[in-house]
Amino acid sequence: MRIVSWNVNGLRSAHKKGFLDWLAAEKADVVGVQEVRAREEQLPEEVRQPEGWRVAHIVSAKRPGYSGVGLFSRKTPDDVVSVLGVEEMDTEGRLQVARFGRLTVVNCYFPNGNGKERDNSRVPFKLAFYRRLFDFLEKGLRDGERIVVVGDFNTAHQEIDLARPKDNRETSGFLLEERQEFCRWLRAGWVDTFRHFEKGGGHYSWWSQRFGVRERNVGWRLDYALASPGAMPYVKRAAIHPHVLGSDHCPVSVDLDPKVRR
């Protein structure tokens, strides 16, 4: 069973760049996308109902052209929840919690800490969102439930997770308090599936759109698939797919034994 996550940087834009061709070719069972930046009715019908997939489940932000997440699945989820119970967070359209049998897939677009002036003014909101979702999932984690959290976490966890750590210590995405919050998740038992298999550097999932940056692989690893201890026995591999174009992010994936749902 393959779960894929991709920040598409605008689903309508990604559609024009071949998103549906990629989706058709991708051997995935569940695909979570972030930064949809559109209401469901603004998406072309072929995106809302792609061949071979169940109707896309879209959660939009109240603010037009902002944030938003979407879920494509081969089988209809048993249940989907898209709120944390905090209005200022829920109006930003950042969350889908979908249950497939005994497996729960969380598709999430974590906030960026940058304010309008790129002044780190949204860092407190970002950390509050992290903590609220952590608390939301904590009981399931403790009870041994099979949970996979995928999405754009907007944080590079360690120096190995970005090309220029020394230049970005004051930049949201690599601030000490953001990294410490990510560490808190791992200490609680969540497993960074990619790092479980790959210890080396040079693996990134986001690159600035400035000319030549992606070609030189001057990137950040901001997109993750975290597995609960209950899900980890079923995890077979995890990967980053930098060859997939169409966004400033690339997809990341995690493969699990299909028995995880039973």
UniProtKB/TrEMBL annotation:
State where Mg(2+) binds. Answer: N7, E35, D152, N154, D248, H249
Q: One Pfam family name from the record?
A: Exo_endo_phos
Needed cofactors, names only, are:
Mn(2+); Mg(2+)
Annotated site residue numbers, Interaction with DNA substrate: H249
Q: Which catalytic residues are annotated?
A: Y109, D152, H249
* Keywords assigned by UniProt, alphabetized: Hydrolase, Magnesium, Manganese, Metal-binding
Q: Which domain of life is it from?
A: Bacteria
Stretches assigned to the Endonuclease/exonuclease/phosphatase domain? 4-249
How the cofactor is bound: the record states: Probably binds two magnesium or manganese ions per subunit.
Keyword Ligase in annotation: no
Q: Where is this site: Transition state stabilizer?
A: N154
Q: Show which residues form the site (Important for catalytic activity).
A: D223
Q: Which family does it belong to?
A: Belongs to the DNA repair enzymes AP/ExoA family.
Q: What is this protein called?
A: Exodeoxyribonuclease III
Species this chain originates from: Cystobacter ferrugineus
